[in-house]
Specification:
By secondary structure, this protein is an alpha+beta fold. The protein has four helices and six strands, in the order H-E-E-E-E-E-H-H-H-E. 50% of the residues lie in helices and 17% in strands. Helix 2 packs antiparallel against helix 3 and helix 2 runs parallel beside helix 4.
Length: 185
C-alpha cells in the first residue's frame, strides 16, 4: 500500500507531462510548424485544420484568487494534408492560433477590469465572460476564413495579418497569462 502512495502521484505527473506534449501554449514570436499538426487527416476539402481552445483556471487563495488564461493549440486534433500544404497555408493556420490569443487577452482584460466580492463571484462572472468571448471568437474565426477564403485570397489574408498583429499588440497590457485578483467588500 505504501508503494501505491508514491506511485500514484508519479503516474499523475507522467500523464500530465504527456498531455503537455500534445498541446502548445501561444507564445509571442513562436510560430507553428507542420510538425505540430499531428492529428489524423479528416475527409474534408481542406489543406489543414487548427484545433484550439482558451483554457481558464481559477485558484482560490482566501482573500485573493489566481487566474490563468491560456491560448491552447491541440496537436493531436490539428491535422494537415501535406500534398496541399505550403507556407501560405501554415501562416493562415498560425493566424487562427493568434486569434485565440487575441480573445484570451480580451478575456483577461475583461476579468481584470471588474471588481469581485468573493471567489464565487469571480467564478460566476468569469464563466459568463468566458462563454461570451468563446462565442465571439468562434464567429471571428469563421469571418476570418470567409474573408480570406481560407488563405486563397492573398490581399485579404495580408489585411487580416496586419490587423491581427495590431489588435494583439493593442492588448499587450494583458499578455501575462497568470494574474492575481483581490476581493473587495
Amino acid at each position: 500500500m505504501k508503494r501505491l502512495v508514491y506511485i500514484f502521484p508519479l503516474l499523475i505527473l507522467m500523464l500530465s507531462f504527456q498531455n503537455k506534449k500534445d498541446i502548445l501554449i501561444w507564445e509571442e514570436g513562436k510560430l507553428l510548424t507542420w510538425d505540430d499538426f499531428r492529428g489524423k487527416t479528416e475527409k474534408r476539402w481542406s489543406a489543414a485544420s487548427t484545433h484550439y481552445d482558451t483554457f481558464k483556471n481559477l485558484t482560490d487563495k482566501g482573500s485573493k484568487a489566481e487566474v490563468e488564461i491560456l491560448a491552447i493549440f491541440y496537436c493531436k486534433k490539428s491535422w494537415k494534408r501535406m500534398s496541399w500544404c505550403n507556407d501560405g497555408v501554415l501562416a493562415h493556420e498560425q493566424k487562427h492560433f493568434d486569434i485565440v490569443e487575441l480573445y484570451a487577452r480580451k478575456l483577461r482584460k475583461q476579468i481584470i477590469e471588474r471588481k469581485y466580492s468573493s471567489y464565487a463571484n469571480l467564478k460566476n462572472v468569469s464563466d459568463s465572460l468566458y462563454d461570451v468571448m468563446d462565442k465571439e471568437m468562434d464567429s471571428f474565426q469563421d469571418k476570418y476564413d470567409d474573408e480570406t477564403d481560407a488563405s486563397m485570397n492573398g490581399d485579404k489574408q495580408r489585411e487580416w495579418n496586419k490587423m491581427l498583429i495590431e489588435q494583439i499588440q493593442s492588448l499587450s497590457l494583458y499578455k501575462n497569462t497568470t494574474f492575481t485578483l483581490s476581493f473587495s467588500k
